[in-house]
Fold:
Amino acid sequence: MFEFTHKRPPKILYPLSVLGLLIATGLTKISDSDIWWHLKAGEVIAVTKKITDIDIFSYTAAGNPWNNFEWLAQVAMWKLGELGGPQAFSFAQLLAAGAVCFIIYKTALLLIRNDIAALWCAFLCMASVFDRLVMRPFIFSFILVPFFCLELHRFASHRKKHLWELPVVTILWINLHGAAILAPMLVFAYAVGETVHLIIQKHLNLSAPPGIGKTKLIRLWIIGALCLIACCVTPYGIDSLIFPFHHLFELKNIVTFTTEWLHPLDPRFDRITTQIVFRILLIIVPVSYIVGVRTIRFPHLMLTILTAGLASMGRRFTAYFVLVNLPIIFYNLRDLASRVHLTGGASNRRAWTSLIIISFLSLLAYKYGMPIGVGGGRFGEPGIGLSSRENAPLIRFLIDNEIKGRIFNPMEMGGKLIFTRWPDEKVFIDGRTPVYGDEFFFDYIRTFHNRRFFEELDRKYNFEYIVTSGPEAWNRRHMERYFWESPEWKLVYQGEDGFVYLRDLPKFKKLIRKKELKNHPVIDEMKLGDMKEKNLLY
Structure:
């Protein structure tokens, strides 16, 4: 009992207590389909020493402008893969998870000056955004958004005199990921808040710490302007600033039919764990400002308004809302917590108890994984290297049988096809949706809803073979039935990763005679369902 009443937990136990959570969220096998075209782009840039500004990976958008703002991240990812293979990507995710957890902990500790509460903040934050921790250029923004907030909070608390490193970091960031335009937004939001704080503090009875003063406020505005200029230090110049708004407001079909761009309150997210947490935080954040109204800091409020506005634009921004606002919630509620007076022994016991609870929850996450949804399922496949879903014998079948020509492929398979078959073969579509344009993307989406739209595309592009996705086969079963029943298309490969149909052309005659399949598992399942329904009717 002496240890629990007279001694605080050693600092070394803090990172150990969240290690299980970090492993569960970071040390997972690679399964994101977009990583493959990023890797191929990185290889092309590294080998040719030139950043490609037109599409080279598809035959449908060949020559279209390609604003590849993530070129530096692609090169870095390719180099990492060259040095350590797919296993290195899993460890990179783990390091990113650790970096974010550490930054959030330091931010909360700076704001509330309570190490155990800061540990809870970091733990809850990682448990709330784990599904965004994937090996894509996004991962750099995942780290740098909370880093910018930490530096701004340090500047406001007089722990830092200058922020001159932020424009330099912005130059790096804008060439890693397009979300770097958040750098000047965060700084300007903080500057607006400090300006308002300075103006009205004299007229209200605020018990919050004083503002940063006029001299530092001017520096803050200058830093914001420099970060804005830094966003143009890319091969694309000012387009780096313009393109995100063009994507959001002009590419309506891409935004409407892409899951990441759906509104976070969309009913389709009702059972997704992280989106449920986000919605809870939407309620807690304003409540925390009401509870802590006498110590409110307007820079914090401006960050909340900024990230709430971003989150309203699409699910992809909800993680930023959590990363920025969870430490602010703890800050707003600190006075409420301080009303509970504890003796030294009771405080130590509470610290040990919190550490034990966090360690236990962290071990549960390590053993059972993070729940991806209310109905079950875990996030990611534990381990290192490639997910079992990325072992694609379908692509090996294409290569071994020298199947070439104009392909029709689903978007989620485009990246892997680019990585394994380019430059010999080019894809129909992949995850670089702006390259293809809004109208083309809409035509592509329509093919999964009505065979007539596929036939229109077929007449335009004269497809020679079709690749479909195994995981999506049941959702797109009516399209599978159309291909299966059409005399023009012959099924020659089926597996968990997908299906391959060849057009009945002279160049494929020999292969069709040798490989054509007489059964289709999806069609058999559909027939079985039709029979069950018929029996129920009678």
Remarks:
- DSSP finds 25 helices and four strands in the chain.
- Confidence is low (pLDDT under 50) at residues 533-538.
- Strands lie at 407-408, 465-469, 489-495, 498-503.
